[in-house]
Fold:
Amino acid sequence: MKNNDPSLEQLSKFLLSSSEYSVITSTNGKITSVNDKLLHKLGFAKNDIVGKSVNLIFPENKNIINNILENRFSGNFISGLNRSNNITYIKWFSCGLDLDSNFVLFSGTDVTDILSQSHFFENVVRQSAEVIIVISLSGNIIDWNIGAENLLGYTKKEMVGQSFFKITPDDHIEEAKKCLKLFRDEKCKDCQSKKLTKDGKIIDVSVSGNLVTDSLGSPVSLALFIRDITEIKKQEGELKYHVAVLEDKNKALGILERFIVSRELKLIELKKQISDLSKQATKNGDVLVSPNYDSNFSNTTEGAKN
Structure:
């Protein structure tokens, strides 16, 4: 097929009006057609680029044409266009138009903002001091950040692909499975559990789980946010102990208080009885003598001597 073939001319006209970045090359890597949007992004005039090597557009992939034609594939890839140190990332779709006609089509979409947000998010997650672990729905670890490394002792390389239950004590695995199921079913956001560090230490943790979905809303993974609450649990235990001691002391004080009140009431009652007896004796002309009254005892003794 010659470059002035009607079908190629029609395709070129279509590309010129396309809202995507578009370029057609020959199989020897020469650019035959490129649309205005891509020219503007590259900062070239049409005459500056047509007939030149496609490596002007894909400098990082010198063998891109051969890779496409030799492997007979239609593929997606991302490349960066650098203009005045301002990089634009393009997601390209590439295919051979007709292997006998010796032309290759590239059509691309700007994904700079998407990648920037994605890289920003990944960097935030990766560098976060909070423990963030991403696991598949089947329970295998997909991502493991620095916070997880610091708390649990394992590196990302050691843990990606491993079962999440590797960091769960054997007697708490069933508990952890129930917790993950609640997260997957979105019936719960938080739970408390125990985790096992690389050096064999068991720690108390609070786990928050969020279901991660794809663009169609289908669940693909779980993002787990883990916080060490070992010290909090320890303080709670100490507080419970002191509360229990205080309650025991309060009970003892209550018993003592009731004893003292009872004793005082008995003394008051006894005094009342003595008072009543004294009044009755006075009324009858009797003398009420205390058995321990020493003066009366002395008088009685003197009378006996006389």
